[in-house]
Amino acid sequence: MTNLDALVPPHEPAEDTLAFAGKAALSMVPVLGPLAAETLAHALESRQAQRQHEFNVAIARALTSAIEQLDETTTIEDIVGSDDFIAAVTRAQRAAAETASQQKRQRLAAAVANGGSWAPFAATEREQFTRLVDEFDALHIWLLHYFTDPAGWLQARDLYQQHANIMMGGIDGPLGSAFNVPQKVWDGPVKQAAADLDRNGLASIPLTTTMSAQGIFAPRTLNKGQRFLAFINETESIAADPPAQL
C-alpha cells in the first residue's frame, strides 16, 4: 500500500520568503516599527504553515496505519470523502494549532484516523474520545499507561523491588518512585488528572486508600481506558515515561 504521507504536497518555505520580500519592498516602510511587525507576522505565518504541513503528514501516516487494519471493502476514497473525516480533520487542525506538544499533535492525528464509521469504535466512543484527546495532557495519558500494569512498569525500571515487601500502604509510594520528585510536586496534578479519568470512566485510581500489596500493584486502568489508548494509537504502556514537567 502506498503511504499516504507521500501524497501530501510539500511545504515550500522559499515561497513564503519571496512573498514576504515582495511585500516589504513594495511597502517602502520608512521606520523600523512597521517593518519589525511585518517581520514578526511573516515569521509566525511561515512557522504556522510548516506546522500545518507536519500535521497533515502525521494524519496521512496515521490513516495509512488505520487502513491497513481494515477490510478491503473500505477504500481511502470512502474515508477522505466522508463528512466524518472532514469534521475530524477540521476539529483536530484547530487543536493542533493551539498546542506546542508534538506528542499531542500525534494523538490528534490518530484521533482523525480513528474518528469515523470505518474505525472499530462506536459513535459514542469516537465522540467522547475525540473530545478527551483535546482536553487531556501528557499526565492523563501516562497515568493510563502506568496503571495498566504498575508492577510491570516498575520492574522494567528496577523500581519494583524497593516496594516488594510492603504489607499495607497506598499506591502513592510506588507512584512517587515513578516520578522521582517530592510528593508535593506531583500530588496536586495527579489528583486532578485521576479525578478526570475517573469522571470519564477511563480509570479508578484510589490515591488515598490504604490496601494490601496486591491492591497497591493492581491495574487501575479500565477497559474503556484501554480503548481510549487504542484510539490514539498508544499501545506500549510499559515503555511510556512520565511527563518531564507536571
Structural notes for this entry:
This protein is mostly helical. It has twelve helices and two strands. The chain has helices at residues 13-27, 32-68, 76-80, 83-97, 102-113, 123-135, 138-146, 150-155, 172-179, 183-199, 213-216, 223-231, and strands at 168-169, 211-212. It has a two-stranded antiparallel ribbon. The protein is globular and about 60 Å long. The two termini are 41 Å apart.
What features would you highlight for this structure?
246 residues, mainly alpha, two-stranded antiparallel sheet, 2 strands, 61% helix, 2% strand
Gross geometry = globular
> What assembly state would you assign to the polypeptide chains in this entry?
single chain
Number of strands: 2
Cα-based radius of gyration, to the nearest Å? 23 Å
Please outline the helices and strands:
Layout: H1 13-27, H2 32-68, H3 76-80, H4 83-97, H5 102-113, H6 123-135, H7 138-146, H8 150-155, E1 168-169, H9 172-179, H10 183-199, E2 211-212, H11 213-216, H12 223-231
Antiparallel strand pairs: 1-2
Helix pairs in contact: 1-2, 2-4, 2-5, 4-5, 5-6, 7-10
Brief synopsis:
The protein has 246 residues and is an all-alpha fold.
